[in-house]
Design a protein that fits this description.
single chain, about 110 residues, mainly beta, Porin, 10-stranded antiparallel sheet
């Protein structure tokens, strides 16, 4: 009824580093809600696959927010080597911070600076 809009991105993004490592990914679906009444908010949902041309790939799942969701903006996924072996788990919130735990059970997080 015109209360929200959904953006399905169809572009493939690419970044190339000086060492010729290339990563490609597509964006997940973005929803912009409460366009007419209420507090305007947006959300991302779907699966993002990040493919490297050398050693690594990543699959991230952006959880769709529900009305009663106590933990919005959740993201979780994994990093795999070229043989498909999982080498790290990623988790966090897309608007706040992401963390990883590698196969040796050590981890680190990086929060966004305010």
């Amino acid at each position: 009824m015109g209360h929200s809009i959904q953006l399905d991105h169809v572009v493939l993004l690419t970044v190339e580093f000086d060492d010729r490592e290339i990563f490609q990914w597509s964006k997940v679906t973005t929803s912009i809600n409460n366009l007419i009444l209420g507090k305007l908010y947006y959300d991302h949902c779907g699966t993002m696959r990040i493919q490297g041309n050398h050693n690594y790939s990543c699959k991230l799942k952006f959880k769709e927010q529900s009305i009663i969701d106590q933990y919005p903006h959740q993201v979780h996924g994994s990093v795999q080597d070229r043989n498909g072996k999982m080498i790290a788990i990623l988790f966090g919130k897309w608007d706040e911070s992401m963390h990883y735990v590698d196969r040796n059970c050590s981890g680190k997080g990086k929060g966004l600076e305010s």
